[in-house]
Amino acid sequence: MSELSRDEVLAVLGPRISDSLAAEIIATGITKPELIAAYNRVLSDRKAHGPPLEPGHIARVVEILERLRSQGFFGAAGSRLE
Predict the structure, then answer these.
(1) Whole-angstrom Cα distance, residue 39 to residue 4?
(2) Of the candidates 66, 6, 70, 68, which has an alpha carbon nearest to the alpha carbon of residue 32?
(3) Which of 24, 37, 41, 58 has its CA 20 to 30 A from that of 50?
(4) Residues 65, 57: contact at Cβ < 8 Å?
(5) What pLDDT, in 10s, does the model give residues 38-60?
């Protein structure tokens, strides 16, 4: 498994991600496909999430992304545009 890069985090989440936030996400050990899945899970209807995630790196990134979403970071319908 290769380590996720800052550029890959930005490609998935958009250019507004700070270096410290990218580092926090990378430190979880998540892969790019897992990051994409976590991002899509956060943006999808909460009722469609399915079963709760087991504790681990994916669940941690979902928590981080949920926090950003609650702060309006992703904008309408998950848009990453400013």
Answers:
(1) 15
(2) 6
(3) 24
(4) no
(5) 998 888 765 565 667 778 888 99
